[in-house]
């Protein structure tokens, strides 16, 4: 590897750059909530079923049971998928308010659509979006990013499968949206403390970017949905007159984005 | 960004703390109190009603969670010694006492078979208990429209659409009624029951109502005429 290209990767990203993020919500008709999240060509569709009836065997008297299935692109789930299921479950058990729906089941099915690295992080982000779509009560939003340490000792954020194959160590971190604390840390391989901390910092800023992106797109979605239902709304001009008295229509369009920003502070 | 904020359209996502500092307020769906903060636990649009100082998150979902006072459409799945068991589309089935009907006494019991459609009100909902239903207004002893739904057809829809259909300003039911006479019952559990003079008309009405969710209310007349012209 020439040192000249040290800051540019094969797909022309720099070391700390995520692949383009793509978000779709509510794409499946027959489940209670669904979402698709992609990092470039890595993509996971997640569906949520619940709070629904639970088998007596799995019933918990004081909280909801969370069941997670990860389905690979081809074939039946293997060891890696089982590990991802475990990580997804522990991550979201900490954030879903299971106490609000005791003796019920919340089923999460993450179907990998295309595997090009960072699948655990993609699945966590997809699951979070699907849970919001399903209206499952959560204490915070969770976003996740994977990074690798290369043989040269560089830290690359959001690796493709090709990059991940040559990695010395792989780290996945998930952060909550309240204090940006790590709620999941999954590391594989041999690494130094310095490399680990560097990975942590880079993943954290990546997770923050994803959070902003989710805020932006969901905020837009909720507003459009809400405005078009309650006001005489013409999507082409984005203006309208209110039919209900407690809404001031001008401010809806103008102040929406500002308020989202304020929320972040 | 204090109180005036609440009157505008504000989008909240799970984990957001609300900029609300009053002492007396009522929290509705999607909001909880965490120590001295009000936290949103669902994504949606924050709404405020000055009367009673009520706050809630307006969102749309498909899975019903029982709440006291909601009118719902259920299907009888089991007959017990004292009550019917009714599927209401929530995580748990609800119970409907034999005495929660108009004119019911110990001697005169309502006779409904398994599979009967019931329009009822949730009289009690608690996360730790099975929801309880009633088909009678306990204050007057009258049915007030609740009870068995005979004939017609049931369709599923999102909870948001069901909620809007129950609001008087929503034009789609009225616009359909101008062309086709029909009876309707709307359950907040995302089930709508329609009974028109012919099967064909029932289907047209159901399709138009379901379709109306995709369009703004101002286009409801257009939705109706589209569906009428298809037949």
From TrEMBL, chain A:
Q: Which stretches are tagged as biased composition: Acidic residues?
A: 254-265
Q: Which GO terms describe its biological process?
A: nuclear mRNA surveillance; poly(A)-dependent snoRNA 3'-end processing; rRNA catabolic process; rRNA processing; U4 snRNA 3'-end processing
* Annotated Exoribonuclease phosphorolytic domain residues: 17-137, 141-198
**Which stretches of sequence are listed as region Disordered?**
238-265
Tell me the compartments it is located in. Answer: Nucleus
Gene Ontology MF term list:
RNA binding
Question: Which GO CC annotations does the UniProt entry carry?
Answer: cytoplasmic exosome (RNase complex); nuclear exosome (RNase complex); nucleolus
Sorted alphabetically, the keyword list is: Exosome, Nucleus, rRNA processing
Q: Where is it mostly found?
A: nucleus
Question: InterPro entries attached here?
Answer: ExoRNase_PH_dom1, ExoRNase_PH_dom2, ExoRNase_PH_dom2_sf, PNPase/RNase_PH_dom_sf, Ribosomal_Su5_D2-typ_SF, RNase_PH
Q: Which family does it belong to?
A: Belongs to the RNase PH family.
Question: What's the name of the protein?
Answer: 6468_t:CDS:1
Q: What is the lineage of its organism?
A: Eukaryota, Fungi, Fungi incertae sedis, Mucoromycota, Glomeromycotina
Automatic annotation (TrEMBL), chain B:
Tell me the GO molecular function terms. Answer: RNA binding
Every K Homology domain range? 152-199
All copies of domain Exosome complex exonuclease Rrp40 N-terminal, residue ranges: 25-63
InterPro entries hit by this protein: Exosome_RNA_bind1/RRP40/RRP4, KH_dom_type_1, KH_dom_type_1_sf, NA-bd_OB-fold, RRP40_KH-I, Rrp40_N_euk, Rrp40_S1
Q: Which GO terms describe its cellular component?
A: cytoplasmic exosome (RNase complex); nuclear exosome (RNase complex); nucleolus
GO BP term (any one): nuclear polyadenylation-dependent rRNA catabolic process
Keywords tagged on the record: Cytoplasm, Exosome, Nucleus, RNA-binding, rRNA processing
Keyword match Cytoplasm: yes
List localization entries. Cytoplasm; Nucleus, Nucleolus
Q: What protein family does this chain belong to?
A: Belongs to the RRP40 family.
Q: What is this protein called?
A: Ribosomal RNA-processing protein 40
Per the UniProt record, the source organism is Ambispora gerdemannii
């Amino acid at each position: 590897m020439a040192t000249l290209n040290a800051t540019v990767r094969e797909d022309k990203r720099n070391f700390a750059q995520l692949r383009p993020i793509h978000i779709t919500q509510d794409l499946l008709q027959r489940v209670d909530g669904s979402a698709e999240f992609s990092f470039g060509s890595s993509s996971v569709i997640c569906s949520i079923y619940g709070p629904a009836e639970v088998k007596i065997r799995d019933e918990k008297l004081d909280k909801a049971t969370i069941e997670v299935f990860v389905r690979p692109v081809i074939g039946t789930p293997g060891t890696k998928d089982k590990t991802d299921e475990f990580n997804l479950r522990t991550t979201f058990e900490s954030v879903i308010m299971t106490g609000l729906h005791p003796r019920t089941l919340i089923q999460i099915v993450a179907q990998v659509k295309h595997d090009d690295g960072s699948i655990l992080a993609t699945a966590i982000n997809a699951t979070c979006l699907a849970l919001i779509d399903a209206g499952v009560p959560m204490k915070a939003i969770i976003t996740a990013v994977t990074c690798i340490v290369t043989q040269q000792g560089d830290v690359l954020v959001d690796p493709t499968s090709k990059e991940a194959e040559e990695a010395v160590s792989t780290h996945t971190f998930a952060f909550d949206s309240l204090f940006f604390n790590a709620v999941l840390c999954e590391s594989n391989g041999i690494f130094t403390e310095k490399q680990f901390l560097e990975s942590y910092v880079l993943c954290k800023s990546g997770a923050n970017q994803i959070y902003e992106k989710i805020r932006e797109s969901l905020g837009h979605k909720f507003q459009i949905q809400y405005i078009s239902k309650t006001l005489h709304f013409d999507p082409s001009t984005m203006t309208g007159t209110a039919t209900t008295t407690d809404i001031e229509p001008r401010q809806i369009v103008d102040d929406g984005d500002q308020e989202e920003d304020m929320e972040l502070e | 960004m204090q109180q005036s904020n609440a009157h505008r359209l504000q989008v909240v996502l799970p984990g957001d703390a609300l900029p609300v500092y009053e002492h007396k307020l009522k929290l509705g769906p999607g909001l909880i109190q965490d120590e001295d903060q009000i936290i949103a636990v669902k994504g949606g649009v924050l709404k405020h009603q000055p009367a009673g100082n009520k706050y809630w998150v307006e969102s749309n979902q498909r899975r019903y969670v029982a709440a006291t006072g909601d009118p719902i459409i259920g299907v009888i799945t089991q007959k017990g010694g004292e009550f019917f068991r009714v599927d209401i589309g929530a995580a748990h089935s609800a119970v409907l006492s034999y005495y929660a009907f108009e004119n019911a006494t110990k001697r005169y019991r309502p006779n409904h078979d398994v599979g009967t459609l019931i329009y009822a009100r949730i009289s009690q909902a608690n996360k730790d208990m099975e929801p309880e239903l009633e088909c009678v207004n306990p204050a007057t002893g009258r049915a007030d429209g609740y009870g068995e739904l005979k004939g017609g057809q049931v369709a599923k829809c999102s909870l948001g659409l069901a909620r809007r259909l129950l609001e008087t300003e929503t034009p789609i039911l009225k616009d359909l009624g101008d062309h086709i006479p029909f009876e309707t019952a709307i359950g907040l559990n995302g089930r709508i029951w329609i009974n028109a003079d012919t099967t064909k008309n029932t289907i047209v009405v159901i399709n138009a109502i379901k379709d109306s969710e995709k369009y703004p209310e101002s286009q409801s007349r257009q939705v109706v005429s589209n569906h009428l012209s298809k037949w």
